[in-house]
Design a protein that fits this description.
Layout (H helix, E strand, L loop, with lengths): L2 H8 L3 H9 L6 E2 L6 E2 L2 H15 L4 H8 L5 H30 L8 H16 L9 H13 L4 H4 L5 H26 L7 H29 L1
Antiparallel strand pairs: 1-2
Length: 224
C-alpha cells in the first residue's frame, strides 16, 4: 500500500510516517521498477506499536531500541512509569502553586509577593513537594553537544537521560581543563610554555563558544 493509505489507516499524517522512516522505525519495501514505497500489514502493525509507545511518552530513540529488540519492553515501561510519577509529583507542586496564586490578587505582582511565593516553593520543597526543575542552560549545553558530535549516537539514544548530560559536561570541562593543566605544568616546571598548544585550544574554545552562542540565539528566535 502507498503512504497515503497507511496514513489513513493509522490516523497519522504523511509527514509523521516519513519522520518515523527517517528515524529508522519503519523500513518499507520499494516497489519493483519504481521509487514508491510499498507498505505492508506488518508496517501497519509496527506504526500502531509506535503510536502506543508514543502515547506513553516514550522517546522515539527508545522506541527504536524496543522495535529492534535492543531493550526489554518491560524495563522500558517500568522506567517510563517511574519518570511519569516523578513528573506528576512536579506537576502537583506547580498546580498547588497556581491554585495558591489564583486565590490572591496577582494582577500586579510586587517584589514582596514574588519573594513570598518563592519562599513558599522553598518551604514546600523541604517537605518533599516537587516543582519543575529549572535546567534550561544545562539542557541547551547537552543539545548543542549532541548537534556538534552526532557520530556519538550510542550516547544520545541511551534510555538513561542523565548519560548525555554527564558526557556533555565532561566534554566541556575537558576543553577547559587541558589548557589549564598545561599552564599549571608550566608554572610547576614540568613542561615548557607552548603558544601553539594554547592557540589551538583557544581556537577550539572560541569556535565552540561562538557556536553555542549562535545555537542559543537561534533557539530563542524560534521560541519568540
Amino acid at each position: 500500500m502507498r503512504i497515503g493509505e497507511i496514513a489513513e489507516r493509522t490516523g497519522l499524517n504523511i509527514s509523521n510516517v516519513r519522520f518515523y522512516e527517517r528515524k529508522g522505525l519503519l523500513t518499507p519495501e520499494r516497489e519493483t521498477g519504481s521509487k514508491y514505497r510499498d507498505y505492508s500489514e506488518e508496517d501497519v502493525n509496527r506504526i500502531k506499536k509506535i503510536l502506543l509507545y508514543r502515547k506513553m511518552g516514550i522517546p522515539v530513540d527508545t522506541i527504536y531500541l524496543i522495535l529492534n529488540d535492543k531493550q526489554d519492553i518491560t524495563d522500558i515501561i517500568l522506567r517510563q512509569q517511574k519518570e511519569l510519577n516523578e513528573e506528576i509529583m512536579g506537576l502537583t507542586g506547580a498546580l498547588k502553586l497556581c491554585e495558591t496564586m489564583l486565590s490572591q490578587d496577582i494582577d500586579n505582582l510586587s517584589t514582596e509577593q514574588i519573594d513570598r511565593y518563592l519562599e513558599y516553593i522553598y518551604e514546600e520543597e523541604k517537605k518533599g513537594t516537587r516543582f519543575f526543575e529549572v535546567t534550561e542552560l544545562l539542557e541547551e549545553i547537552t543539545d548543542y553537544t549532541k548537534s556538534t558530535l552526532p557520530h556519538l549516537s550510542f550516547l544520545w539514544i541511551t534510555n538513561k537521560p542523565w548519560i548525555p548530560t554527564v558526557f556533555a559536561l565532561f566534554f566541556w570541562c575537558m576543553l577547559l581543563a587541558i589548557p589549564i593543566a598545561h599552564l599549571i605544568d608550566v608554572i610547576n616546571g614540568e613542561d615548557t610554555f607552548s603558544i601553539l598548544k594554547l592557540s589551538v585550544f583557544a581556537v577550539i574554545l572560541i569556535i565552540y563558544g561562538y557556536g553555542f552562542f549562535k545555537f542559543r540565539k537561534i533557539r530563542k528566535g524560534n521560541a519568540a
